[in-house]
Amino acid sequence: MVQVRVLGVALDSVGQHIILLKPVGGAQAVGQVLAIVVGEQEATSALIALSGETPPRPLSHDLMKTLLDTVGAHVERVDVTRIDQGTFYAEITLGIAAGSFVLDARPSDSVALALRAEAPLFVADDVLEAEGIPAAMVESGGNVEETPSGEQSLDEFKDFLEHVDPEDFRS
Fold it and tell me: Domains in the chain, ordered, with CATH?
């Protein structure tokens, strides 16, 4: 497993939201970024967590974190474990009174929850090797501005919040 951080959230060339995961430290997979396509709501949730902003009403991932805190559980780590026919798979390891418990989860939800819980993120070596793209393609592409904290431009995020329609979040 390679520890990663969220480099940012961006749009790909066809307008799909992607979360960008970049390895931290070590020489392994240096210069690689893993791009995972996510839904608009998950992208928004990740952006809110990255910016440190608080939404006017809790989003699903805020609720998940509150539920875990309420029952005395915590997120120990999130692992992107594999890819199968273009679909990424992840696991959330929870720490509970009885020990650790591993849950199968979508990477989009897992990353958004890990950001809120300040839990470490990892990607399987073979997933990063098979699906990683050169970081230079992302960092020079103009869609994501890397800052020391790995956040997307705060001004762009604030503009998004000003123009978001609450109907976008109704089920």
Answer: 2-169 (3.10.690.10)
Q: Is the dihedral of CA 38, 17, 83, 24 positive or negative?
A: negative
Q: How many whole angstroms separate alpha carbon 61 and alpha carbon 47?
A: 12
Model pTM score: 0.76
In the chain, what is the greatest distance between 2 CA atoms, to the nearest angstrom? 46
Among candidates 109, 126, 106, 136, which has minimal Cα distance to 33?
136
Distance CA 1, CA 67 (A): 28
88-117 pLDDT tens trace:
999 999 999 999 999 999 999 999 999 999
Buried b (16+ CB within 10 A) or exposed e, 12-36: eeeeebbbbbbbeeeeebeebbbbb
3-state secondary structure of 2: strand
What's CA 25's distance to the chain center, in Å?
18
